[in-house]
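Quick start: read one record
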Amino acid sequence: MTTLAAAEATQPTTPATTEAEQATAAAAASPQSPADTGEIVVTGFRNSLRKALDLKRAAPNLIESVLAEDMAKMPDLNLSESIQRVPGVAISREGGEGRNITLRGFAPDFTRTTLNGMEVPASTDGLDSGGFTVNSSRGFDFNVFASELFNRIDVQKTQRASIEEGGIAGTVDLYSGRPFDRMGMHFVTSAEGSYNTVTRKVDPRVAAVFSDTFADNRIGILLSAAYSKRTVWQEGRSSVLWTSPYINGDSWADTNPTVTGTPKPCGAADPLDCLWAPRLPRADFFGNDQKRLGLSGALQLRPVDRLTVSLSALYSRLKNDRYSYNSMEWLLTHGPAGGFVGQTPRKFVVGPNGKDLIAATFDDVTSWYESRHQESKSSFQQYLANVDYSINDRLTFEGLLGKARDSADRTELRFYARSIPHPYSYDYSKSADAPTVSFGNYDPNNPANYDNALTAANRLNKVTKDNVTAKGDLTYRNGGLVLKGGLAFNRRYVRYGEASGNGPYITPVSQYLKAFPIPHFGSGVISGGLPTFAVIDFDKIGSSGLIDTNYVDNVGAGWKVTEKTKGGYLEINDRIDLGEMVLRLNAGARYVRTTVESDAVLAGSPVEVKHSYNNFLPSANLGLEVTPDVIARLSYARSMTRPGLSSLNIAGPVFGYDTRTVSNFGNPRLKPYLSNDYDFALEWYFTKGGLLSAGVFYKDIISSLTTAIVTQRIPQQYWAAIYADPRYSPAYNADPATTNYTFSIPVNTPNGNRVKGLELTANVPFSFVGPEWLSPLGVASNYTYVDARDSAGLSKNSYNFTVYYDTGTRGIRASLNHRDSYLISAPGGNGNAQARKSGSSQIDMSAYWNLSKRLTLNLQGINVNNQHERYYDTGDGSQFLVREYTGTGRTFLAGVRYQF
């Protein structure tokens, strides 16, 4: 371990770095021994917390930082799980691992993410419950990257003119290591094994970093690599939404079932048709075999004292092989049984609210047992060149040229094996999460009880994202006065495509079924485990020749969106003495022009729509040093977030020529979301590494997006495709050149959301309170409250609480992270008012022991309280109808780390 002054942390000088930040960076990078400084040696987790507070204290705007404890040693295994400990941040998980972040109540699309100073994309695939197949949005998937490649994360909560536009919620800056961060030769390697209580398997995780500087520290090189394998079994129960026959447009079969309880009327002729019931009650298994590889390299040159040239590259690849097995019972449609649909009701139990069918018994139910095999790969690569040149003692130039590409694809093969009719009952009376079920004398494990199989999907989805950035900044310093200006160009390109293969009807299906392949199914999530069932044997299917692996492109579903931005800014930073107080001033403005080009193929004809808009974005940050340890901050900014890609793409519009209507119509002419942002915070740095702070924020969204009904002409770019459409006929008198159509289309609106919130932070190292035995103890905690109109991803309350004991030789810490339930979508589908996800409280633990100066033993526990995931729907708005209840179990890691 190292001292506070010499501990490893990336301290890059970016175009947005202020003089105060550079001073902090220099202090962290200059090696001094404890004897030189007279300070107490502070190491490990406490050291990273202290340095993060030093950065926060020196910054002109409101930021939060997470720093590595040492080289290739972020405090969490996943970047998003490190960021979630920042006030105002909540995360969403996929398969028990952090994936996206929600910052100050805003969905992931409203947070901009950079890597080493350049905006970058990152996409992976996900489960249906997450709302998409492959991420084609602006949201950033943090699970693509190995955390060992990074050693600093900054979360910019308030704007500066020198921060590029795009994130109303804020900007997350990721930094990987460079050799000049730490002079001399250094090598670190680590190896860990992880054990999961659901899979009962051990997976490896290894990493290595080498850096060296030579030629009188004028040349430096850094190489790093990280590899991990992760086996994740997500198991549990699902209803696949609830609905009622009345909302579904049908009725229960008239079989005079025994009814316990009284249903509330809803307008249906038979009150029983008002009852909400699970659509496809099932046991779920999602098995993921993930392999993550990360590589990075950096070369730095200082040919003369005033010039530093940095070249860096980063590559990351995440591969996932997922098998999913789901035992769905067909309650999706109602009515007399036959043709693999319908059922015969025998007993109904009505819930206390008169709306829910909490228990039911049926005859003649058909199983539609789903088996899926999905293979996905996400590849990311970035190439970056930086130049830092001190023209003279007052004037410096910083330049950046970079390219990043993210490519994510997924192939999916899915079957529904359909059974003979059989008895089935479910009962939610003892648990709203997981019902007890019974099949009577029917055996779902017997292949002879299955008739045929439908091929539900044989497809490929692919998303490619390319970013190119070029920018240059000039900085002039004269004492405390710092003037900055710069220009930036960005090109963002996103392409989505899909293709499909054949879909054979398989009968009989018994020869392609096998016994359920997963041992102890569900025992780590549901008491007593879950019932097994027969599943598709994908190996036999693959060798049968039934499936054609030659995909045919679905040209009409593909789309491309290209954004080009040209911007510039001017910014002033100064320090003004006000008696015994000092006022820090940061003010400036940014101007940017955005050009959007959206392309698709409609009815065989290429269509292209272009649009441009301009934005002027002023900002100001004031920091008043009331005392040397108390800072009051006040900020204002006009911020923006560009429209979501789903709103800009023009693929697949539906033209109703007989009704003169248009639906599913993207609008590339949209302008961005605009917000007026106000922040006030009071910070008290009462000791080294200690902070008590309170802040309030208010974001007034003055330009937003909504879906509106608009009567207008169809733009000329679409006319050729319409004339070529075989469904179009002049007999409809609907010529797009002369006739108005009624559109359902996304449009800009001045009626935006208003988001306000409170953030509290208490970082308390006990070293200042007296007894020496308390010195290694400390608490790092924060709480966030957000008040806004109910919007996707928003949790009103979230908090983080970490308690740690860190002596420098050994240490342990435990962290609790909580967020309230939040909205997934509104409406929620099948008549539900909303789809939501329950709040969660997860506990993680970590411990280390330095066996020697170079060798360290590490132990970690993730989700040690075995927190489960729960999605639910709200029915008519007042109900709690669990859609999915699953868990991935606890994960424990043990490993060693060697460094010199």
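Residues 44-58 form the longest helix (15 residues).
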